[in-house]
Structures are given as C-alpha cells and as structure tokens.
Write a structure and sequence with these properties.
alpha+beta; disordered N terminus; 8 strands; Aminopeptidase; 5 helices
Length: about 190
C-alpha cells in the first residue's frame, strides 16, 4: 500500500502549467477526484465527435459510459498498467494522452492514444503531451514499456507528422480499416522503440 501512496504523491507533483500560444494550460495526471466530474470529460470527447475528428469513436458517449471509462482508467493507473494525463484550459479539458500496456506476451508494448480539442491543435500541445506521457510511462508502468505503439487514420497527416517528429516509425498501413465521412480509409500503425 505504501508504494501506491508514493505513486499517488508523484502523480500529484506532476501537475504543471505551461503556456501554449498565449493560453495557460494545466497538464496533470488523471486523479481519483475526476470520478466526480465525468461530465467534464464527456463534453471533451463528445466535442471531438461533434467536430467529426479522426478518432475511433463515432457516437457520443453517455455519462454512464464516461464514468465507466474513468473508473477503468484509474484502475489501470493504480495497477501501474496505464498512465493518463489531462490538459485543461480554464477548467475545460482540451487534451488527453495515455499509454496502456497491452499485457501478456505483449507486456513490453504500450498502446499510445492522444486527443486534442480543435482550437488547441497546432500550438505545440500535442507534442508536449506526447513527450510527457512517454516519460511518465517510463517512470510509472511496470514492466517499463520497450515499444510504444499507435494506430492513426492514414488520412490524418498532421497527426502522422507529429508522431514522426517524436521518433515514431511507420511499420504498416492496413487498407479500409476505418470509416470516415462515408468512405473506408486506411489505418497506419507506428512504433517508437525505447
């Protein structure tokens, strides 16, 4: 139990305030108190769906679904199986990043995910979240991941360029894996060797 308390202390200390394009943004870990604020996270993910962003979800989440997601994510963090950080501007979630160990014979692989609100893209926030979540995965996850894996719409060139800039290499493109704007588009798989 003592290790978990130390881990929580570390995560609390992680909170940082950074300026991106004149906007003061707080970068912090997901915390247990966030379970009381599922609407704030639901509004964030649903804003991406409303925008028709290139994300895996295509239907808005209910409050119940968001609560379950937060609870499961906090459970993964507690078990040191996942890390998750939140970017907030004026107490509104504007970005998230996560890495979750795949488990079993792929326990050395962390699955990476990132989402950033439309008005906060292209200002360096995505790059910063990427760097921070990778560093955090190296400190918090057990076992420490040796490979970070991601999946992205092949049509999402800004995201692919961001990942390349941070050392990810394209290893596969699988055609017709995602439905977007009524068309089937490819899925690009990228890896970062650590």
């Amino acid at each position: 139990m003592m290790d978990l308390q130390k881990g929580n202390l570390f995560l609390t200390m992680l909170a940082k305030i950074k300026i991106f394009n004149g906007k003061k943004i707080t970068i912090r870990p997901l915390l247990k108190k966030d379970l009381k604020l599922p609407e704030k996270f639901r509004k964030f993910i649903n804003s991406l769906i409303t925008e028709n962003a290139q994300v895996a979800f295509n239907k808005k989440l209910s409050l119940k679904e968001e609560r379950i997601f937060l609870k499961n994510t906090l459970s993964q963090i507690k078990k040191r199986f996942g890390v998750f950080i939140v970017a907030e501007h004026n107490k509104i979630v504007v970005g998230t990043a996560s890495i979750t160990l795949k488990g079993n014979r792929q326990n050395h692989v962390g699955e990476y995910g990132i989402t950033v609100r439309k008005d906060y893209r292209g200002i360096g926030l995505g790059g910063y979240l990427t760097e921070e979540i990778i560093k955090l995965s190296q400190k918090q996850l057990k076992p420490t991941p040796k490979i970070i894996r991601l999946s992205v719409f092949s049509t999402n060139k800004p995201a692919i360029n961001l990942y390349k800039k941070h050392g990810f290499k394209k290893v596969a493109e699988i055609p017709n894996q995602m439905e977007y704007n009524g068309k089937l588009v490819g899925e690009t798989i990228m890896l970062l060797q650590l």
